[in-house]
Amino acid sequence: MLALNQNLQKLIGIAQKTEKTGIGLMSGTSLDGLDIALCRFTGSGLQTKFSLLQFITIPYTNDFKKEVQQVFAKKEASLEKICLLNEYIGNFHGELVLQALDSWKIKPEEVDFIASHGQTIYHAPKRLHKRAGYPNATLQIGDGDHLAVKTRILTISDFRQKHIAAGGEGAPLALYGDVLLGSKPGENRILLNIGGIANLTYLPADSDNNKVLCTDIGPGNTLIDAACCKYYNKAYDEDSEIAFSGKINEDLLSALLGHPFFAEQAPKTTGPELFNLAYVEEAQQRSNTTSISNEDLICTLSAFTAKSIADFIIQYFKADDIKIFTSGGGVKNIFVIDYLKKALPGIAIADTSDLGINPDAKEAILFALLGNEALCGEPLKIGSNPAVLMGKFSFAG
C-alpha cells in the first residue's frame, strides 16, 4: 500500500485535533483593509465552541485601493491586471498575516490553518447578469497557494464557488457561521451585518433550520462611502457628520428604493455592480434632484441604506418578537443606527458584542469557522441553502 504524501498526512493530523487555531481573513467591498482574526476552535457543526484570541484590521493604502478599483465591480477590465492582482493579493495578504503574527509574538507553526475570503472583484448572480444559459457566478482573487507558500500555513480559500456549484448564489455565506454561533433557543434573532452591502440572518427561536433566512438586503456603506470619496475626498462619513448636516430628499429616496431588486423574493444577493454612483446618478435624473446639495445627497443615501433595511425587516418579520444584533462598519454609522431605532421602535437593537462576538471581527471569525468546518465538519442543511462544505485547500509546500 502506498503511503500518503506528507501534506495529506499533515492535513489529516490537523483535522483530527480536538482543538485548532485558525486565522480568518476578510476583505470586503468597502476596501478599507484586511481583517485578521486569530481564533481557537473545539468541535464542529452545532457543537462548535470558539474564542477570539487576537484581532486586527490592517488598513489598505490609497495606492493599493486604486489598483483594486481598476478591476472592481466593472463589466470590462484588463485581463492582465486581474491576473497580476490575483497573485499579488495572495502574496500581500500573506505578508499582512505574518506582520500580524509577529506583532502578537506568535509563530506561523503555531497556527493550524488560514481561511481566506480573498477580494471580491465581481459578483454576478443570474438576477443581475440576465444572460441566458449562464449560471450564478462570482469571482474572488488573492490566490490561496501564494498565501500558503508565503506564510508556510495550510490555507483554505475560494469558499463561494462550492455554494454556487451546488445551486446557491455564493452569498451571503454568513449564514453558516451565524447559525452555529448566534442561535439561542427561545429567542428570535436577526444578525444584521452592515458592510459594503447589508445582509442579515434570521435565527428562529425554535431552532428550526428550515425557517432560517439569510439574504442580502441592499446597499450598506458602499454608496455613502463612494459619495464621500467623490464629493469630500473622505473614505467615509465619520460620526455621520455630513449626513446630520443635510436633509433627506424624499423624491430621491423614493427613486432609489424603486429598483425591482427590492421587490424580489428573498433570499437574494447583490453588490456594487448594481448599487454604485451610476445608479445614484440615474435615480437623480429620474427624480429631478441633480441639483441637491452634497450634504443632502449623503443624508439621503444614509437614509436609503437604513430604510431599505427597516422596510425588509417590517415586511418579513414580526417587529415585537425579535432582537437585532449588528456588525460591520455600518455599526459606527450613527445616522443609520438612529434611523433604524426610530423605524423599528418595537425591536431591541444592539451590536454583536452582546453575544461575545466583536462586531468588527465577525466576518473574519465566520470565515475562520468555515475553515474549521472544511477540516472536520459535516454538510449542514439550512433553509434553501445547499448543504455543502466550502473551501479549497492549498498546502504550504
Outline of this structure?
It is built from 14 helices and twelve strands. It is of the alpha/beta class. The chain has two domains: 6-173 and 362-394, Nucleotidyltransferase, domain 5, CATH 3.30.420; 182-355, 2-Layer Sandwich (Nucleotidyltransferase, domain 5), CATH 3.30.420.
Structure explained in plain terms:
- This protein has 2 domains: 6-173 and 362-394, 2-Layer Sandwich (Nucleotidyltransferase, domain 5); 182-355, 2-Layer Sandwich (Nucleotidyltransferase, domain 5), CATH 3.30.420.
- Strands 1, 2, 3, 4, 5, 6 and 12 form a 7-stranded mixed sheet that branches.
- The model has no long low-confidence stretch (mean pLDDT 95).
- The radius of gyration is 21 Å and the shape is globular.
- The protein has 397 residues and is of the alpha/beta class.
- It contains 14 helices and 12 strands.
- It has helices at 6-15, 62-69, 79-103, 126-129, 144-151, 160-165, 174-182, 222-232, 241-245, 250-256, 277-287, 294-316, 334-343, 362-376, and strands at residues 19-27, 33-42, 49-59, 113-124, 137-141, 155-157, 189-194, 197-203, 213-219, 323-327, 348-351, 392-394.
- It starts with 5 loop residues before the first helix and ends with a strand.
- The relative contact order is 0.17.
- The longest helix is centred in the N-terminal third of the chain and has 25 residues, at 79-103.
- It is 38% helix and 21% strand.
